[in-house]
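Margin note from the TA: students keep mixing up input and output lines. Inputs are the sequences; the output is the structure of the whole complex. Example:
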Amino acid sequence: MSELDPTIAEKLKRTADGLVAAIAQQRGTGEVLMMAWMDDEALHRTLTTRRATYFSRSRGTYWVKGETSGHTQHVHEVRLDCDGDTLLLVVDQQGAACHTGDRTCFDADVLLPVES
Amino acid sequence: MSELDPTIAEKLKRTADGLVAAIAQQRGTGEVLMMAWMDDEALHRTLTTRRATYFSRSRGTYWVKGETSGHTQHVHEVRLDCDGDTLLLVVDQQGAACHTGDRTCFDADVLLPVES
């Protein structure tokens, strides 16, 4: 059972696994850095510590972003979307957001380039 | 069976329902507008028409963004993230992205305000 504020918990529309999507965006530049998942407890920890904390679906554990790499995310603002299934985190990203070392997880693979 | 380019299709890491997440971001301003879902065919249509086309999980149908409202998204660029399960669409949003009439789906509900 999470300690997440019940007035927030009742707004969430979770997946069958109990998760909501979380998009991290760099404050100021607006770069979309990454997308990951949170359950109620991950959101609770993020809101109360302002350190972005996600839930790993593959490992089934919580991870504080940057805890091992140092590439932390200080959370300035958290918003919930209109249907309650996606969070937007406005953060200050230290270093690379992507585990590959890229600044964002969307840097490497362009499927459709800008029109020339 | 979708006509999606097989070299793209083989990169996608889909949910059990065959979907990848798609984040729409306004070109220039960097606003995060909304998050929705695509299957292979929705992505194929988006890439070939440059009109953002999503898959509705609740209705089980494709929807061209703005087809009824006029609030279309012209797609400038599509990027795939490092683990193949999330797309970033850089778009020109006509009018409101949110069905509520708000500019973005994240305008209405601030869970954690900016530090004062």
